[in-house]
Amino acid sequence: MGEINVLHVGGYTSTNIGNAFYNLGIRHVLKSLGKEINLFTTSDLQSYAWSRFNTKKASSFDPCKYFTNMDYIIWSGPMLGTMYVKKWINILRKANAVGTKIICMSAGGNRYTREEIEEVRSILKEFRLYALFSRDFETYENYKDLFEHSYSGICCAFYIPEYFKSWKLDVEPYVVFNFEQHTEPLFVKANEGFEFAEKWGGGLNFGRLVKDGLYKRNIPISCLEG
User: How far apart are CA 167 and CA 34, in angstroms?
Assistant: First the structure.
């Protein structure tokens, strides 16, 4: 069993701390494999973020265009959205050309509309995609047939209790939510956990996720070869 070179492309955390939750969770999962992994990390394409404050033609250096000797690329976060997939076409083509296996881990969509799903599928059909570990059931159902290996998983942020040990706080039980730039929904306390007081985020019931403790589920990751 030789060393495995893995390039993990995660969302940047300076403007969205939520990205750090699943990025660190992915690193935790990889460390738990018991394999010799050389892990290289980089951010996703950021020109769209910089253009908010500069120009839509803002330039950025993309190290992914120049990667060499990678066995796997891990593509994470809401990357199965139309905007992201279009930006990654050339890099995915390069990965296929040099034999680098493409893994979507802790992956989800963006808008979850029928239009987005059809457009993303039409693009991804071009590529030989290795493995999908979805972070929600909708993503798994919509894209599972496009990958050699597909698993209905969870967001790797749910592994936080396994790799982060906090100090004891003298406060009532609490739940932390992170919504980036979106307007936060109204929450109501349920019998267990929390629920949205009104439909939000495509109708996903985050309260169900909290009270079910889905971070404890075992995700099969044996498809990483070495």
Answer: 28
What are the residues facing 8 on neighbouring strands? 41, 74
What is this structure's pTM? 0.73
Alpha-carbon separation of residue 151 from 46, 106, 140, 147, 186 (angstroms): 28, 10, 7, 10, 32
- Which helix (DSSP H) or strand (DSSP E) does residue 151 occupy? strand 147-151
Strand order of the sheet with strand 101-107? 37-43, 4-10, 72-77, 101-107, 129-134, 147-151
Q: Which residue has the tokens 């439909």?
A: 199
Q: Quick check: 82 and 116 in contact, CB under 8 A?
A: yes
Smallest CA-to-CA distance from 100 within 64, 142, 143, 124 is with 64
CB atoms within 10 A of CB 47: 15
pLDDT in tens, 16-75: 777 888 999 999 999 999 899 999 988 766 555 555 555 555 566 667 778 889 999 999
CB 104 within 8 A of CB 75: yes
Q: Are 8 and 71 in contact (CB under 8 A)?
A: no
Q: Provide the pLDDT for residue 119.
A: 96
CA 18/CA 33 separation, integer angstroms = 24
Token couple for 191: 């019998």
Residue 125 is predicted with a pLDDT of 95
Contact 75, 41 (CB under 8 A): no
> Which position has the token pair 């029928």?
114
